[in-house]
Amino acid sequence: MSRRSRARPVSATGGPPGSPATLYPSSVRSRIEEVQAFSRAALERDLDDESAVRAALAELSPLSDSSDLRVRDRCLATADAEAYARARDRIPEVSTELVEDRRELAELAQGYATVIAVDEAFAGLEIEGVRVEPDALEEPARVVPERVLGFFARNRDSLRAAARVHRLSDLDSPVELDRLEGALDRLAEDGSIAGDPELDRLVAAAGSVETAAEEAERLANRRLREAIEQRDVTIQGQDLLALIERGASADSLLTRELDGAYEAAVEAARTELIEALGLEERADLARRAFADEPTYPVARDETVVRELRDQLTAARDRRETQRKRELAGELAGLRESCETLVEAAVRLDAELAVAGFAREYDCTMPTIGGEGFEIVGGRSPLFDLPVSEIEPVEYAVTGVRLLSGVNSGGKTSALDLVAAVATLAHMGLPVPDAGAFEATLREFGELATTVSADRSVLVLADEPESITEPGASAIIVAGVLEALAQREATAVFVSHLSREIREAAATEIGADGIAAEGLEDGRLVVDRSPVRGRLARSTPELIVEKLADDDPFYRHLLEKF
Description:
The protein is α/β, with parallel strands linked by helices.
């Protein structure tokens, strides 16, 4: 152990066994096997467009909740003390008020946009701004849809990303994606309703009543001024005196002399106000904002303007509340499924991370058990180098060993590699150790898929069957030779399984042999020039042949060659 670092036990706590959320080294075989199952699934995952999936996963984040919601435009009302306590507990986001009778309930409605009465005794009551809902405490989303909408608004981007991940990766979705995405499209980032043209109109109208009324008033005065400037109005002194004696006002003079110019200017103002606010059902109220009696300058009736604003605001709030309740009712039942949706996407993200690491370092799933360890073709993931530049290490240890070497010879790096392999193995993850069979198989695969007929390639392999069991290796080598033959490569494979390989091949594979002429004084006599088209006899066959002269058992054995 060097002075720069001291070995410490690796420990961690995490979620349930097999959970990809927290991975940690364990000595419990069941835990290792469960995470290994997750890792194997990761290595077998095949995506049509992994880059698109990764782009969607980049927008994914854990779902978050909030408990600081407070709604002040509505309240709950009850005459029952027990219902009062239950309401405060079930729906703390809004105020709960005690009332004794219907009169107090009506007074309460003057201070809130909506009052929800939860007592059955109030059924049938008709007071503007009061809803009687005895089951309100059983359905909090009907009273405070913002509770549901707030959760989905905060997590809208993550839910959309999770939906895209499921579409791109063909994961089984726990929720109907079209339904979820359609609901999210109707939800704004701040939790308000989106995509409702009528609500948008009411919001814009309620917020611009005063401005629209001012503009309409300016239009009326401009029209009336232009009309006056274009008229040559002459009032004889006699007429003026007569009018004054009869108590006539300037308004009556305007009415008489302008021949409807005032009416036209006011009608233009009314039309301007109605069109600016997009009014239909409240057009009559808007018309009353400008009186029929002539005045100059034309002035709007502020009382009517305030009434118009209040009505539009109330209509806006009613529309928004209704739409919120509808959307919250639709989304409330999806929350649990949406949590599962995101968890599945997070799991896929973890799978891709494991698979990416495994591909980068040519990893394999380790075998747990036995004594000591064996590393074949190991590349330490601790080096800050491209994987192709990391020299592979072969090292096997059983029992206690001393590792010596020159300075900078790689002793510490070898120790780091052993530690990394052991730690990853006990976490249930693949390790940067290709293994003899897998490493050779990958090399064969690269050869078989990259060799093209338009270039000269020479492939030489010495006893490739040693990578695994004879039966399997004969099949693998046969497949490699078939692929090389199709690509018109030049190849020589030395093998003791030539007969088995040719039998396993789907196409004819030529075979040459170095002929053995026999044994002399225990020494093998051979013609070292390969004979084309001839399968050579093996050394064991020659030995059995020699023994067969003296024993019927060996003659029987020789027949099997």
